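Hi, here's the filled form for the chain we discussed.

Project: internal
Contact: R.S.
Residues: 329
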Amino acid sequence: MGDPSGIGPEIALSAWLSRASLDLPPFYLLGDPGLLADRAKRLGLKLSIAVVEPHQCAAIFATSLPVVALDATYRDTPGVPHTANATGIVQSIDRAVADVFGDRAAAIVTLPIAKKVLYDAGFIFPGHTEYLGELASRQVGRPIRPVMMLAGPDLRAVPVTIHIPLAEVPKALTSELIVETGRIVAQDMRERFGFDRARLAVSGLNPHAGENGAIGAEDEAVVRPAVARLRAEGIDAVGPLPADTMFHAAARAGYDAALCMYHDQALIPAKALAFDDTVNVTLGLPFVRTSPDHGTAFDIAGKGIARPDSFVAALRLAAELGARRSLRA
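And the returned structure, exactly as it came back:
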């Protein structure tokens, strides 16, 4: 249910209320059933909430919103985040991972969290994605590197570096990082999305992809060798390509996923093309994880105006990917 002070609870409630018209796959929420009931009352929503175990979800989904209750308690103050909720937020992530590894769930759909709330409570991971990677690594006994993909109807975009300041990107970007990311994307495009051999378009870091070294050295020294290595491994990759010409319709027709060098280079075109329908998908994990592509939206939490579109898209994609691909060891 994400951060309970954000819009996560209400978009989940709204989605369930439209379950029939939207033809949603069955899902259950991990969290506080009392908070959800109070939030529904605050918003004037009439619904039945059933406290269940995961195996009971499908049977009651048509008549009641299934909620698996956690031990943690939450402060219910829409729009006002509290570090007191951090324990419950982390507990819900832990339980979700335990449920997919225990075959009690086919996929995880996470609702938005506020990183500062967790940081103030001592959380040491940059965000959801990195923590899920750590939990998965513990389960399988080997290091796992999660990769973020923004998947929409017209574009799949992957940032190679993610939540770091722009000034730090050139230092963090290495050929090995690009190659590792490209391998994960190529594998999951095949195993999860059903592509025999996905076409990867790799952006340059600098304007005009560096113009052969005239505008920065990184594209020739770092990006181009990485693309060559990917191609040598049999991955259909091209680049470095100028980012300013990669995302119009004719260009997008030439590839299946774009590898971008930093966060906004990937997320701006993805959200500009389909803000309400784009889904955050984590590649590289041994289970399916999707998420809406927006944040907690504290400014509108509790007002009943948040739209569930991206959450609905995340549910549908999770069901599709979960059906296509069983849990990977």
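Let me know if anything looks off before we file it.
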